[in-house]
Specification:
Distance between the termini: 63 Å
Shape: flat
Order of helices and strands: HEHEEEHE
Number of helices: 3
Number of strands: 5
Helix content: 25-40%
Low-confidence stretches: none
Mean pLDDT: 81
Strand content: 25-35%
Structural class: alpha/beta
């Protein structure tokens, strides 16, 4: 009796979810079927590029091992992590920091040589309250926030890849119309 009820609920739930248009978010589907993406970076030890590569591989997007095999190239030009003081306490010591993680990247169509995305930039900001009496725990909190920020940055880059219209070049420079 329980198994029949469980199956019925599962089927109803599956029909409801599929009817509303919900689907798992994975690899960008706007690239033509069978096309391959090559990921390159100016920093050979880039954790960001490694994480994006792993995520896209597990989501099913074919990745090229060599640039000559690829139809499209994602180039990560720069990735930075900065920390700046936002506020100070009565003794003049930092009591709050702003953590910033950012990346600048481009996408090129290797078949036509066109830039599909030029000098796009993704930024993630977080605030970290600091206490000199808890240096170890605050250091660990900063490390955890940086990891979370990197995951969010990767998500933003992948979302931007999903929105590329491969038929027209796009510039993510707010100064240009």
């Amino acid at each position: 009796m329980k198994s029949t009820l469980l199956r019925t609920i599962t089927i109803i739930l599956a029909i409801t979810i599929s009817a509303c248009g919900w689907h798992l978010r994975g690899a960008p589907k706007n690239f033509p079927p069978g096309s391959k993406l090559y990921i390159t970076t100016q920093d050979p030890r880039s954790e960001l590029a490694d994480s994006i590569t792993r995520l896209l591989q597990t989501s099913g997007l074919p990745l090229a091992e060599e640039p000559s095999e690829a139809d499209y190239t994602l180039t990560i030009h720069q990735e930075t992590e900065t920390k700046r003081t936002v506020s100070v306490d009565a003794k003049g010591r930092a009591s709050e920091y702003e953590l910033i993680t950012s990346a600048e990247y481009s996408v090129q169509d290797n078949n036509t040589g066109r830039d599909l995305l030029t000098q796009a930039k993704a930024d993630v900001y977080r605030t970290l309250e600091w206490d000199d009496n808890e240096v170890v725990s605050k250091g660990e909190e900063e490390r955890l926030q940086r990891e979370e920020m990197r995951r969010e940055l990767i998500g933003r880059i992948i979302d931007r890849l999903r929105r590329i219209d491969i038929r027209t070049p796009i510039t993510d420079n707010p100064a240009q119309p």
